[in-house]
Design brief:
single chain, Mannose-Binding Protein A, Chain A, 2 domains, nine-stranded mixed sheet, 6% helix, elongated
């Protein structure tokens, strides 16, 4: 079975940017039809980034799964067919995943050749206000088949999309739904218990959703028709209002013959430097997008909007430019995976894992400062930029040849020259003075170490911290010399050390070996935070440090876990 990342719920400034977390809520929409003779396969794919991460899964308020994962380990957990949500009512068939450390949660639904997957966003990335423009399914399918959309209401099997609203908090949520259509505005209210969900048909309406609590909103269609009387399930997490943007790069998609853009309310939409749409309030008109197979396209709007790329069998929430980040997580399980990378034209220095992407196939994107490139990939990778923000999409194709894809998982928005940061470095001091050996053990007992400014970069990072936390005196650092050889070395743990290649000694230091075997750092900017050799029995404050962890250094491993649940 192929496991693909398809639709992703994005996040933006004001909320967390990263797509991983410790608390997730989701559901499985209907795939094709609940009565279809072929069995469906519904799974969660959970990836841990830290060792000894405890993961729990709850469904219908019952804990059904507990597992401890190691760093880079992925578990694929299978759910029964009846988990699919096909009824238009309140339901407790939610799936909640919690963990002790940060994880990524993906789900996959497959029935025959209808395969869709979704990146489940952590609860802290969800919102309380959503707007869902009506997707004119009849217009889309009539254009595909070169026929009048007046025939569509009686022709297509399923002519409307559905919305699933999931209460993401441990409290009752009151939700107001405003439905706008040619018949006017209609309002109705929904009350959801903790983690309860509700599904309803959009019925040719634009939807405005307000909630007093955090909710997840899924736009889904069980059977979007394609050429040849086939159909595919589509699912997309809707962006809360705070996640919209004004500028977008639409990635070039191979094998996509017909595509439209759906734009939420705005005044003007610009493409290739010209106005292509003056949006009317509550309009459902789809905007044709040409030449997407040949090159990525730049789109701008007069105000914050959400934009979806739509094609038969494909719905993608596009990533606003203000959602670009420093590093992304991608997972391709077929041999025909494709990552589309968008970077500033002057900063095309992109890494895949620990390797620099060396290619001259970058294509400029008209009317923008960006270029894009398509890279063939399989397996799991981290794509990152050392100095600026980029955009990354991933695509594959079904057996029928229909392409599908999504923005990649955002791991960190801040660039770092050493890689894709999983955890930033941490500094910790103590008001109690201690000897060097006592300070060394004090830091180790907290899973830290005495700080080791072993390079100019590390010295500058330490200096930045000291400048904002300046008090008089000196702090212990993890540098000491041997009693036998008088050679200096960095002490990492009780039994590990490494040589010294960089120093920042103050004038007159280091002192003679018989006078000082340990080292400290000045907290005085006037002394340029220089080092001073000190007797190890002197009493100074410890300066503890935990170094940054990087996603691009993690090796990923996938395991499978099959189980049945009784609800």
């Amino acid at each position: 079975m192929l496991f693909h990342l398809l639709f992703i719920s994005l996040i933006c400034s004001g909320l967390s940017v990263e797509s991983y977390g410790k608390d997730f809520i989701t559901a499985f929409p209907e795939n094709i039809a609940y009565y279809h003779p072929q069995e469906s396969s519904n799974t969660l794919q959970i990836t841990a980034f830290y060792s000894d991460t405890s993961v729990s899964i709850t469904i219908n308020y019952i804990n059904v799964y507990n597992e401890k994962l190691q760093s880079g380990q992925t578990k694929i957990v299978h759910f029964p067919k009846y988990i699919e949500q096909y009824q238009y009512t309140n339901s407790t068939l939610f799936v909640r995943v919690t963990s002790t450390e940060k994880i990524v949660v993906l789900w996959l639904s497959q029935r025959g050749d209808s395969v869709q997957s979704n990146v489940v966003q952590p609860v802290n990335n969800l919102g309380k206000w959503y707007k869902i423009p009506f997707i004119n399914y009849n217009q889309m399918m009539a254009s595909l088949y070169n026929m009048s959309d007046q025939l569509a209401p009686d022709y297509w099997r399923y002519s409307s999309f559905r919305l699933i609203i999931i209460n993401a908090i441990k409290a009752v949520s009151l939700i107001t739904i405003q439905s706008f259509s040619t018949d006017g505005r209609k309002d109705f209210n929904i009350t959801l218990r903790p983690y309860e969900l509700h599904q309803f048909q959009t019925n040719g309406s634009e939807i405005h959703l307000h909630s007093n609590g955090t909710v997840a909103v899924l736009l889904t269609h069980p059977c979007v028709e394609t050429i040849g009387c086939d159909c595919n399930m589509v699912v997309s997490h809707i962006l809360p209002r705070g996640l919209w943007g004004e500028t977008f790069v639409v990635p070039s998609v191979k094998n996509l013959s017909t595509a439209w853009l759906q734009v939420s309310t705005t005044t003007n939409v610009m493409h290739k430097g010209r106005n292509i749409k003056t949006q009317i309030y509550n309009s459902s008109e789809l905007i044709p997008l040409l030449d997407l197979k040949s090159a990525s396209q730049f789109i701008s709007a007069a105000n914050d909007v959400s934009i979806r790329l739509i094609s038969p069998g494909l719905v993608i929430e596009l990533m606003p430019e203000n959602m670009f980040a420093a590093c992304f997580f991608v997972q391709m399980n077929s041999t025909e995976g494709e990552a589309v990378i968008i970077a500033e034209a002057s900063k095309k220095i992109v890494y895949i894992d620990t390797n620099l992407l060396s290619s001259t196939d970058w294509k400029p994107i008209p009317n923008s400062n960006y270029s894009s490139i398509s890279v063939s990939l399989s397996g799991t990778h981290v794509i990152w930029h050392p100095t600026s923000k980029i955009g990354v999409y991933m695509f594959e194709k079904m057996k029928s040849g229909i392409p599908y894809g999504s923005p990649a998982i955002i791991l960190n928005e801040k660039p770092d020259r050493d890689g894709c940061v999983a955890d930033s470095s941490y500094y910790k001091t103590n008001t109690t003075v201690m000897t060097w050996p006592e300070s060394h053990h004090y830091c180790l007992n907290m899973s830290y170490q005495l700080i080791t400014p072993s390079s100019e970069k590390a010295q500058n990072e330490m200096t930045n911290f000291l400048q904002s936390n300046t008090v008089p005196g000196y702090l212990w650092i993890g540098l000491r010399r041997s009693r036998l050889t008088s050679e200096w070395s960095w002490q990492i743990s009780n039994d590990s050390e490494y040589s010294v290649n960089y120093t920042k000694w103050a004038v007159g230091h280091p002192n003679k070996p018989w006078k000082a075997l340990c080292a400290s750092v000045s907290q005085d900017a006037n002394q340029e935070f220089s080092w001073k050799s000190v007797p190890c029995c002197a009493k100074l404050r410890p300066f503890c440090y935990k170094e940054a962890k990087y996603f691009n250094h993690i090796t990923f491993d996938t395991l499978y876990d099959h189980f049945s649940m009784i609800v």
